[in-house]
């Protein structure tokens, strides 16, 4: 596996984060969600929206040779993993799992007993493989998702 580095996201990374997120929605989520949902979803992904979330949550970026290939957003205070996104060209190669392991370590070091998340329908299997349990369907706006949780073994 390539030499991947995971570090705290910086405001300079926001444009790349937005670009990767849009590609993920257009190329990966569009296999599961209908065109109208995708169109509305893409409107919500923009620099201002991400910048506003930078203040209230932790962002990390995954880089190979200084190029960002993915990112994640989470909140240690509320125990929520908001998202892990890996650029479509890098999906299915284990990078998402590496990003997740980095985040899980942060939760454990912070003394958290569980991680909660809302998985997109296409990411449900990914999180199930990481040990998350399905708690039933939920909605984020008009996006159907699966509420999931993982106990961290305390």
UniProtKB/TrEMBL annotation:
TM ranges: none
GO MF, one annotated term: acyltransferase activity, transferring groups other than amino-acyl groups
Residue span, N-acetyltransferase domain: 4-153
SUPFAM superfamilies, per the entry: Acyl-CoA N-acyltransferases (Nat)
One Pfam family per UniProt: Acetyltransf_10
InterPro entries listed in its UniProt record: Acyl_CoA_acyltransferase (IPR016181), GNAT_dom (IPR000182), N-acetyltrans/Recomb-assoc (IPR052564)
Protein name: N-acetyltransferase domain-containing protein
Lineage: Bacteria, Katanobacteria
